[in-house]
Backbone:
């Protein structure tokens, strides 16, 4: 069944409570920041949550105009608190299960641990929609929760996260293998597609819109 628990307050707050403790994520975020253009003027963050990734992008590029998209009321509330005093950041309330709205064009589209909450067919559509939102030469940088290659590796990932045997996987997850996702990016016209960083089930998938 296509479950998505992110609008639920308890679910969203439980994630935010452990977000800083996700092992190695800052390494992936650092590499994501490295692939951004030198002076991006507009950046879109898909599934922004409380705006963690967009805030990192704006720390690296204070002049950037940020557009963020999410559909979870508790997340949107935290996002609005974080950027309360910032003029050039816009939050668009939108469900990623539906086609992306007309948002103008971007130098970079970023995302962190969000798109894996959509089914694979929708992931592929999102990749194509992202490509069309990018300016020529623009980059899509997706720090993502991906599928392990085997059930044993998945268990090892859960152990590394400190999850107990009785903990269950987040039913909102629809994890896809790295290789499949890289191929889907190529199929919709991204170039120089690669996984530039990976730790177990956390991976940075990138591709550029050709000039
Ligand atoms: C694990 S959190 C990550 C939040 C943030 N990007 C970060 O890295 O901290 C997943 C985010 O994706 C959002 N999300 C999940 N499914 C979504 C959907 N169908 N439409 C819009 N946002 C969605 C959730 O509301 C949540 O904010």
Residues:
């Amino acid at each position: 069944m296509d479950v998505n628990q992110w609008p639920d307050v308890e679910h969203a707050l439980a994630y935010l409570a452990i977000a800083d403790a996700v092992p190695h994520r800052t390494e992936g975020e650092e590499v994501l920041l490295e692939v951004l253009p030198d002076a991006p003027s507009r950046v879109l963050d898909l599934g922004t949550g409380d705006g963690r990734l967009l805030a990192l992008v704006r720390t690296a590029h204070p002049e950037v105009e940020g557009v963020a998209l999410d559909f979870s009321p508790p997340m949107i509330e935290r996002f609005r608190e974080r950027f309360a005093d910032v003029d050039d950041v816009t939050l668009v309330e939108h469900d990623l299960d539906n086609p992306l709205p007309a948002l103008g064009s971007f130098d970079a589209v970023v995302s962190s641990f969000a798109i894996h909450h959509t089914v694979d067919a929708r992931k592929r559509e999102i990749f194509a929609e992202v490509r069309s939102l990018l300016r020529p030469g623009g980059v899509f940088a997706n720090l993502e929760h991906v599928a392990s290659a085997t059930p044993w590796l998945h268990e090892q990932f859960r152990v590394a996260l400190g999850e107990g045997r009785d903990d269950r996987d987040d039913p909102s997850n629809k994890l896809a293998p790295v290789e499949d996702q890289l191929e889907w990016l190529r199929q919709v016209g991204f170039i120089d597609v690669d996984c530039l960083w990976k730790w177990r089930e956390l991976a940075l998938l990138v591709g550029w819109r050709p000039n």
Notes: Residues 120-133 form the longest helix (14 residues). The chain has a mean pLDDT of 96. Residues 4, 6, 15, 19, 47-49, 52-53, 70-72, 75, 95-97, 112-114, 117-118 surround S-adenosylmethionine (CB under 6 Å).
